[in-house]
């Protein structure tokens, strides 16, 4: 140990007895490697050996082995971890097509040159890009390549015995000694019994007892890394087989879990339609309540949907509530409540007074006060006053709470004073043109407005129960009342149980790995030159820790009571009295910050 | 209903008063800490310098010490354990603390701690009043997050002190940033008390956010220690290579614990918080699974929580990798904490994602 050491860890240790130290052993981080203790300090963990400068051997096999060694080294694992963190950053700052397609489109529009470059680099879908995937796949391989040998090594450690005592116990980080009148064998036996009782794995090796404890640390560390593999696999599995579909349901309507029932549907690459959980449900009632006053007036307080569902083709009907944080779970599937809005019920009569349309029309909310818009489309059955067949459409704007003076937007999200604003059109909706149409939008290319007597476009605000009569006896539309609709997202993500199990294991494994100390204790008892037994005890942990000396002190105290003091004729003179121990060799009780 | 609203409003204003009072007391504590540093002398012996520049002679190989009761009665009570640090590491004693052994400085230090305790209690009361006024846990927006965060950070510090850990030297650094944090809270981030939108009604939220705040506070203590470690380590290096550090460095750094102790303490703190941070992320994933239909969706907040996690995993790995121990590992720890901070402030302010509806 030299005072003039400059760079700390990297200087090879010079042992007090001047002997050349054992080759610095990089695989033992912490105290053990610095002691040059050879076998006694080895295998305190199963971390892989660092083979920094070893040149690759000959031939393809040699190179392959070299690459494998590199890939599974701590250094490369660290590098890959850093890359993973770094690679995750752009995805949080650049719009991602997986989460928000429209934002990506906006970005492309706004950045003419950057857009294509980002596209090439996969920056709009970072987490499924080639480069991000290759980092985590490499990490995954490295992880497996690391765990397998470590597990074997650990099994080997469990089957062999703790290494024997090093020659000079004084060189260990914690050391104590005393002289006793007991015979060396007595001392060793007492030590063996004591350490065994403290659940050390102890055995007699030569003139000393060797003991080790804290194997759970290694178990924890391996469990943690294996759990990472389980989590990654479960996550990947979930991605490949997951499904996610949306369905808008108006109060009173139902849904059954088949592909064609969905408004939109996404699935992982390996998903098969037969995998959909069979169930169906009806939306009985949606309830939303809102903050009625204060600065956050209008903020939603509760959202809940009362539904009746049944599982399988002939399942019994059951009632339940689906709330924002409480999805309905059926098998692997979960039914979430994701959005809601209003669906005014309207009745349309044609020129002859015949009802040609009667339905609740879901409208899309535009703002937080649920100002909504949409279209009522009457595709067939309608005839005008002269009996000519035509199509009708009503552009609809809906304000759940209408306040005089504010014609364009609602002032509160609940149905306080609902007003339905309708603008009628007639003509050809163009639904047969083959281009898919949004049900919420109106293509006016072949539609004509209605004009009133003064020549102005017909447009009217209706309250529930009121009717808008079309000019020239073309018919009428009546606003009967308002239903609510709820949007349900149905997801199926298999293996999420595994992901959860993996993560719980990971936490416990980590805790074991970080909080349990693996440490060794040796007790040597030999007859000194004067025929008196000298007991020496030393402790070694993986890193310098106050716990090792503390525990050693404890053990020494107990052992001392069992094999007490020196013989009467040798007053307990220490062989090397040191009234003023230098600051480094202070008793454990006075150690620094971590106390 | 109206009566309840009125109570809530008065509770909210009581909370505000308490937070301002706590800031006032923290400010007093701040000055007391300053006084401790100013009056406290640089340790008389200049321990670090003495240990690093004196000849190698002072170091003996560990001696066998035997505790003798009543000087010489030759009754051994208990064998005493001799500790020696690993070869290759510097043997530097811990500094005496901010007061530097000066009695007056020590007195100011004690006053500062008493004031910190008082301010902590007042702030805690403020947080509780705020919670009562909104009838939920006090972490619905960044204002509440900030006041809770600093309370917990000070709580962690005081707990460590109460456990007789050698952390008193942290005081000034901690209180300075607590004042910054609170200043930010009451000016920029203030939000009138209010309840939560439905997506935030979940007990997983309580678990997730409370552990997130706690981890942040602990990581914060770790980061401050790491920074001090870097300074102290540079200082020791300079001394060991025969350089002469500046007056300021001599005065301040000599009083801090040895670099090795700081490093060890920072490691412990970070390592203790890491499993809990892992748990925080998982709790968040469970909550997201219930609220949004997927447990992981690479939302910016989730992504940065993940980056932070990987950052700390890097730090822990680095400590077990040859050539990465010491300063490099320390930089990684700071980077990881930087990610945590960015997740907390940056993501809420600059990036929009699902989490942003929790309100700035
Ligand atoms: C997904 C990537 C990984 C993560 C998140 C991760 C995380 C961690 C964490 C948090 C620790 C600290 C626990 C402790 O100090 O005992 C640790 C330790 C360890 N990791 Fe990993 N790890 C990963 C991959 C790997 C790989 C690929 C290897 C193999 C080279 C590896 C080898 C080790 C070893 C040997 C330790 C124990 C170090 C020691 O004994 O102090 N890890 N890992």
The gist of it:
The complex is a heterodimer of chains A (595) and B (360). By secondary structure, chain A is α+β, with helices and mostly antiparallel strands. Chain A has helices spanning 31-35, 59-71, 74-93, 101-110, 114-121, 130-159, 184-197, 216-241, 496-515, 547-562, and strands at 174-180, 201-205, 208-213, 243-250, 254-256, 264-267, 279-290, 300-311, 318-323, 328-330, 333-349, 355-360, 364-365, 372-378, 391-399, 419-427, 447-449, 460-462, 467-469, 476-492, 519-527, 533-541.
Describe the structure in your own words:
The complex is a heterodimer of chains A (595) and B (360). Chain A is of the alpha+beta class. Chain A has helices at 31-35, 59-71, 74-93, 101-110, 114-121, 130-159, 184-197, 216-241, 496-515, 547-562, and strands at 174-180, 201-205, 208-213, 243-250, 254-256, 264-267, 279-290, 300-311, 318-323, 328-330, 333-349, 355-360, 364-365, 372-378, 391-399, 419-427, 447-449, 460-462, 467-469, 476-492, 519-527, 533-541. With 360 residues, chain B is mostly helical. Chain B contains 10 helices and 3 strands. Chain B has a two-stranded antiparallel sheet. Mean pLDDT of chain B is 80; it is low at 55-76 and 356-360. Chains A and B meet through helix 1, helix 3, strand 1, strand 8 and strand 11 of A and strand 2, strand 3, helix 6, helix 8 and helix 9 of B. The structure holds protoporphyrin IX containing FE. Protoporphyrin IX containing FE (HEM) sits between chains A (29, 45, 47-48, 72, 74, 77, 81, 139, 142-143, 146, 221, 225, 228, 513-514) and B (313, 316-317, 320).
């Amino acid at each position: 140990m030299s005072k003039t050491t400059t760079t700390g860890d990297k200087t090879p240790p010079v042992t007090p007895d001047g002997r050349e130290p054992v080759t610095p052993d990089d695989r033992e981080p912490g105290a053990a490697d610095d002691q040059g203790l050879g076998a006694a300090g080895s295998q305190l963990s199963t971390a892989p050996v660092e083979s920094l400068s070893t040149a690759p051997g000959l031939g393809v096999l040699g190179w392959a082995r070299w690459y494998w060694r590199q890939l599974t080294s701590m250094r490369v694992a660290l590098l890959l971890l850093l890359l993973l963190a770094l690679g995750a950053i752009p995805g949080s700052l650049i719009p991602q097509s997986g989460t928000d397609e429209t934002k990506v489109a906006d970005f492309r529009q706004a950045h003419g040159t950057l857009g294509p470059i980002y596209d090439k680099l996969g920056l709009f879908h970072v987490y499924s890009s080639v480069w991000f995937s290759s980092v985590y796949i490499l990490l995954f391989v490295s992880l497996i390549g690391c765990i397998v040998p470590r597990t074997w090594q650990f099994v080997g450690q469990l089957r062999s015995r703790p290494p024997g005592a090093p020659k000079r116990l004084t060189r260990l980080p914690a050391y104590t000694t005393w002289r006793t009148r007991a015979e060396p064998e007595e001392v060793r036996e007492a030590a063996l019994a004591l350490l065994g009782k403290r659940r050390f794995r102890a055995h007699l090796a030569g003139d000393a007892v060797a003991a080790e404890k804290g194997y759970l640390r290694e178990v924890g560390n391996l469990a943690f890394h294996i759990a990472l593999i389980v989590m990654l696999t479960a996550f990947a599995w979930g991605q490949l087989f997951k499904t996610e579909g949306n369905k808008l349901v108006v109060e009173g309507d139902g849904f059954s879990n088949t592909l064609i029932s969905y408004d939109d549907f996404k699935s992982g690459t390996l998903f098969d339609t037969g995998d959909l959980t069979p169930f169906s449900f009806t939306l009985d009632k949606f309830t939303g309540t809102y903050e009625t006053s204060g600065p956050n007036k209008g903020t939603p307080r509760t959202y809940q949907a009362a539904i009746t569902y049944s599982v399988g083709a002939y399942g019994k009907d059951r009632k339940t509530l689906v709330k924002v944080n409480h999805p309905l779970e059926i098998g692997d599937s979960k039914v979430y409540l994701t959005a809601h809005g209003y669906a005014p019920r309207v009745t349309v009569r044609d020129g002859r007074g015949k009802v040609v349309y009667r339905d609740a029309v879901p409208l899309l909310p535009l703002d937080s006060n649920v100002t909504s818009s949409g279209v009522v489309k009457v595709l067939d059955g309608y005839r005008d006053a002269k009996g000519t067949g035509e199509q009708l459409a009503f552009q609809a704007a809906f304000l759940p709470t209408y306040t005089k003076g504010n014609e364009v937007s609602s002032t509160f999200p609940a149905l306080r004073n609902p007003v339905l604003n309708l603008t009628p059109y007639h003509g050809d909706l163009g639904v047969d043109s083959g281009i898919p149409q949004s049900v919420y939008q109106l293509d006016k290319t072949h539609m004509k407005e209605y004009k009133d007597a003064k020549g102005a476009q017909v447009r009217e605000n209706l309250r529930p129960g009121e009717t808008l009569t079309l000019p020239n006896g073309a018919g009428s539309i009546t606003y009967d009342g308002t239903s609510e609709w709820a949007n349900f997202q149905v997801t199926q993500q298999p293996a999420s149980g595994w992901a959860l199990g993996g993560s719980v294991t990971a936490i416990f494994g980590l805790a074991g790995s970080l909080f349990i100390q693996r440490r060794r204790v040796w007790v040597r008892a030999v007859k000194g030159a004067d025929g008196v037994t000298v007991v020496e005890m030393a402790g070694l942990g993986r890193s310098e820790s106050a716990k090792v000396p503390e525990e050693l002190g404890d053990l020494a105290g107990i052992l001392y009571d069992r094999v007490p003091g020196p013989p009467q004729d040798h007053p307990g003179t220490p062989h090397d009295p040191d009234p003023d121990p230098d600051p480094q060799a202070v008793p454990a009780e006075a150690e620094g910050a971590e106390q | 209903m109206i009566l309840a609203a009125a109570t809530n409003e008065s509770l909210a204003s009581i909370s505000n008063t308490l937070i301002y009072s706590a800031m006032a007391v923290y400010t007093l504590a701040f000055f007391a800490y300053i006084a401790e540093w100013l009056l406290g002398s640089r340790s008389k012996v200049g321990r670090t310098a003495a240990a690093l520049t004196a000849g190698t002679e002072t170091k003996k190989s560990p001696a066998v010490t035997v505790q003798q009761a009543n000087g010489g009665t030759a009754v051994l009570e208990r064998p005493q354990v001799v500790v020696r640090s690993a070869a290759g590491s510097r043997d530097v004693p811990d500094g005496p603390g901010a007061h530097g052994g000066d009695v007056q400085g020590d007195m100011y230090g004690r006053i500062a701690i008493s004031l910190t305790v008082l301010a902590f209690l007042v702030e805690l009361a403020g947080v509780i009043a705020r919670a009562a006024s909104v009838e939920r846990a006090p972490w619905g927006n960044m204002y509440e997050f900030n006041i809770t965060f600093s309370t917990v950070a000070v709580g962690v510090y005081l707990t460590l002190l109460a456990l007789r850990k050698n952390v008193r030297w942290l005081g000034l650094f901690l209180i300075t940033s607590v004042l910054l944090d609170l200043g930010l809270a009451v000016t920029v981030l203030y939000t009138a008390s209010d309840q939560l939108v439905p997506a935030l009604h979940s007990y997983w939220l309580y678990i997730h956010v409370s552990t997130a705040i706690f981890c942040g506070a602990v990581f914060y203590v770790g980061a401050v220690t790491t920074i001090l470690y870097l300074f102290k380590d540079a200082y020791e290096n300079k001394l060991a290579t025969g350089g002469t550090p500046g007056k300021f460095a001599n005065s301040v750094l000599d009083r801090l614990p040895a670099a090795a102790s700081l490093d060890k303490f920072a490691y412990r703190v970070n390592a203790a918080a890491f499993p809990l941070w892992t748990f925080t992320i998982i709790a968040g994933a469970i909550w997201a699974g219930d609220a949004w239909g997927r447990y992981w969706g690479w939302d910016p907040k989730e992504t940065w929580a993940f980056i932070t996690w990987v950052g700390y995993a890097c730090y822990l790995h680095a400590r077990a990798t040859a050539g990465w121990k010491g300063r490099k590992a320390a930089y990684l720890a700071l980077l990881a904490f930087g990610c945590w901070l960015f997740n907390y402030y940056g993501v809420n302010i600059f990036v929009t994602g699902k989490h942003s509806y929790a309100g700035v």
